[in-house]
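Project outcomes to date are best conveyed with an example. Our students and postdoctoral researchers have been running inverse folding experiments weekly, and each run begins with a structure described purely in tokens. The record below, which covers 126 residues, was selected by the lab manager from last quarter's runs and is presented without edits.
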């Protein structure tokens, strides 16, 4: 049984953001691209405006639909990792939600995979 199954979404994003000091932002997005819950790590400043963040999340939902076209031949997407100069962006697909979080860019691949796997465990019930 998933220990996270009955906790509110705000607590889920708080748990994600608290996984590591390199975390910046975490959001849970519905299949239409609406932000259901999000949080910026205390002491960090957003690199995007609220409007830009909402627009980006809508695009995340659109890309999810586009990637789904290849599930039959290539298999389901496990996660998406975009490395940018100022931030690492990671997207994880659960059955009914999309998890989006950002981290500082200077994180080792091993540490990043550990965080991704922990986020998957926290959000597996969504």
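After processing, the design step wrote out the following sequence:
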């Amino acid at each position: 049984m998933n220990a996270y199954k009955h906790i509110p979404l705000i607590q889920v994003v708080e748990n994600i953001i608290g996984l590591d000091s390199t975390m910046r932002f975490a959001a849970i997005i519905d299949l239409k691209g609406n932000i259901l819950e999000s949080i910026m790590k205390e002491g960090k400043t957003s690199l995007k405006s609220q409007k830009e963040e909402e627009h980006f999340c809508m695009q995340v939902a659109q890309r999810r639909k586009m990637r789904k076209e290849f599930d039959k031949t290539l298999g389901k997407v496990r996660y998406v990792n975009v490395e940018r100069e100022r931030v690492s962006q990671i997207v994880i697909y659960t059955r009914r939600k999309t998890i989006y979080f950002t981290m500082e860019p200077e994180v080792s691949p091993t540490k990043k995979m550990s965080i991704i796997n922990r986020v998957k465990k926290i959000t597996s019930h969504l």
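The mean pLDDT is 92. DSSP finds four helices and five strands in the chain. The training component of this project remains on track.
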